[in-house]
Amino acid sequence: MSLTGTSFLYTLIALAVVALALPLALWSRLRGPRALRAAGRVLMLLFAQGTAVALVFVLVNNSNSLYDNWSDLLGTGNHVEQAADLGANGTGGIALKRLPKVRQTFTEAGGPGLRGVRVTQLKGRISGVNAEVYVWLPPQYRSPAYRHHRFPVVELLPGYPGSAKAWFGSLHATAQLAPLMREGRVAPFILVAPRTNLLAGVDTGCANIPGTVNADSWLSVDVPKMVMDNFRAQPAPSGWSVAGYSAGAHCAAKLAVAHPDRYRAAVSMSGYNDPIGERASLAAQNLRLRAANNPYLLLREARTPPRIALYVSGQPHDGYEAGVALAQTAKAPTTVHVVYIPLSAGGHTMALWRPQVVPAFRWLTEELGLGVQRTGVTPRARSSAGSRPAELASGTSSPAAAVRRR
Predict the structure, then answer these.
(1) How far apart are CA 406 and CA 403, in angstroms?
(2) d(CA 345, CA 244)
(3) What is each CA distance from 52 to 58, 61, 65, 280, 385, in whole angstroms?
(4) What is the Cα–Cα distance from 177 to 188, expressed in whole angstroms?
(5) Which of 23, 101, 288, 342 sits CB 3.0–4.6 Å from 229 for a disulfide?
(6) What is the end-to-end Cα distance of the chain in Å, rounded?
(7) Distance CA 159, CA 271 (A)
(8) Would the pLDDT of 258 be above 80?
(9) CA–CA separation, 23 vs 43, rounded Å?
(10) Residue 45 pLDDT exceeds 80
């Protein structure tokens, strides 16, 4: 029975009802020695408490998309087949253009918020990762007017622990964005959500660690190549962005800063710069790994500032300071847009990030200079330089927060 399935949830609800009814019906009717009756009553109480705890856990898990399946929850899942040393650029010296095209079979993904989402099991030729990737196509994709159009792509990353389906389910990304895409208020992005929970009980930190995992190459090489080989997607880096929340926000900023040849922009919601922000991160194991996967240090020490744009939102002590640090160290042509979220907006939860989805995608639309039109109308050509957005975030940008370095 699936951990996130409806049948399991309904079974727990039924068991919780039974667990509540049993003491009411049998408490005074138990027969036998006093010790046996006491044991029976204790078992009924434990059964009631156990089912209640299990039901609450499943409701919280389904709401926040923490664990996808039983192997994720029990720490028995491993999606890494090999982890060769791929070198500084994460390709192992392989000329990616010479690799044969990756042809995948997709099936409809099931679950709340996954209408129109398709999933495939991808074996990463470079990274050695074997895991699922979810893809959602914008309303315009099948429109005759767009039959020759290549679409921009946003790679979506969850927190840790977190499900690849979280952006579609818990954050309601497609439900929020599809109407705006039809109205021409947000560009028609292809949304791609790869699995990031690759090893049992640890956060990969989106890092390449020879002998352990090549999470960076999985996200920035294997997944983009598969998408470009199977869909009418724009080439990297001009048409590619990456977005995440919490640990996924850290990964989004790090991937964009480390690979400006693969991504043009990144959205980071409640992220951090130093991988030690997630104690379970493999990238926090030692000082060398921490430095190599810290977007602030990568940006500060870059010989040539990357041509990327970063959108960083956060509350005090939860992403805001990290964004300001990035803005202060960035140099042209790097730009950083920091959005201050008041503490009253909520804690480190989906309730905080869900309202930020639309502002972030409006920013991406403007920042990348993507002309948009209603479904069925011939798309505009992209402008050579994106116009700068007005204040788009759900929250307040303080003078210090709205810093841009050029």
Answers:
(1) 10
(2) 18
(3) 10, 14, 19, 28, 56
(4) 9
(5) 101
(6) 53
(7) 9
(8) yes
(9) 10
(10) yes
Lowest mean per-residue pLDDT among 135-149, 157-171, 339-353: 339-353
Q: Give the dihedral of Cα atoms 179, 181, 184, 189; nearest 10 deg.
A: 170
Best CA proximity match to 324, nearest among 332, 314, 333, 334: 314
What residues contact residue 315 under an 8 Å CB cut-off, 6+ apart? 270, 340, 341, 342, 343, 345, 352
Sequence-ordered list of residues with C-beta below 8 angstroms from that of 304, at least 6 positions apart, any chain: none
Average pLDDT over all residues of the chain: 87
CA–CA distances in Å: residue 112 to residues 4, 53, 162: 10, 22, 15
The residue among 352, 361, 363 whose CA lies nearest residue 316 is 352
Structure tokens belonging to residue 267? 């959205």
Tell me how many degrees the CA angle 78-121-191 measures, rounded to the nearest 5: 110
In angstroms, the CA 58 to CA 69 distance is 11
**Most confident of the ranges 19-23, 181-185, 367-371:** 181-185
Whether the Cβ atoms of residue 69 and residue 77 lie closer than 8 Å to each other: yes
The b/e string for 44-53 (b: 16+ C-beta within 10 A; e otherwise) is: beebbeebee
Does residue 400 have a pLDDT over 90?
no
Residue indicated by tokens 């972030």: 360
Region 55-76: what's the mean pLDDT?
Answer: 70
The identity of residue 159, as a single letter, is G
